[in-house]
Amino acid sequence: MKDKVGFIGAGNMAGALINGVLKAGLLSPQAMLASDAKDTQLKKVKKTYGIQTFRENTQVISQVSTVILAIKPQNIEEVLGEIAPAVTKKQLIISIVAGITTKQIAKHLSGDVPVIRVMPNTPALIQEGASVLSVGKHATEAHLKSAIKLFTAVGKVVTVEEHLMDAVTGLSGSGPAYVFLFIEALADAGVKMGLPRSTAQLLATQTCLGAAKMVSETGEHPAQLRDMVTSPGGTTITGLHKLEAGGLRTTLIDAVEAATKRSKELGSVKR
Hints:
Layout: E1 5-8, H1 12-24, E2 32-35, H2 39-49, E3 52-54, H3 57-61, E4 66-69, H4 76-83, E5 92-95, H5 102-108, E6 115-119, E7 129-135, H6 141-152, E8 155-159, H7 165-173, H8 175-192, H9 197-218, H10 222-228, H11 235-245, H12 248-270
Parallel strand pairs: 1-2, 1-4, 2-3, 4-5, 5-6, 7-8
Antiparallel strand pairs: 6-7
């Protein structure tokens, strides 16, 4: 059981984490197990990563020290009820199930089981994710370090108090979709101005990627970097004026706020 990780659910996010952990050399395929209700998912992860797979969730639980819940929110109560008799307080439960609190999970298991909640996002599929962790009542510093090590394999990791997880969902959880829309619109603008679609999409994508890396690697405030490229009376300030007039900044803030509120609503329904 020592240092073995089991995935309950073998979908895209589980696959991303398995891939990242293997690439980082944190665990061998023999040290990872997965269960899923769908044979197609099990065959895929077994063929791709060479890990052990099972139809029964309890077969995974009995062999691992860390359990990662990677299932849909609507299935959480059924799965927790199934695995509860097999889970012990010596195991760490990591949940990437959206909207489900550590308290809710602990309540369905024996109350003193250590639980850590994680909100990853889809760029984890290419090891460029932003994963946010919050620690349940019985999780220790050692448990947190273990979880951070796993999720660092698929990108950046930060920790927050659990009451902020809805805001995290609104920003980084939903955020990739906002950026995809921005890239799509930027490329459409290039096409309107006469650029071929393939060229416009490449330029829009690389511009966003490069700009994001500049913020990340320089540590400068985005406003300072924006000012560097904004010449008096030039093209950039003219374009920025149109974006501000169109309410881009306010619309993005409103989008994160609305998504945060929706996350809270969905969480309250599940409670």
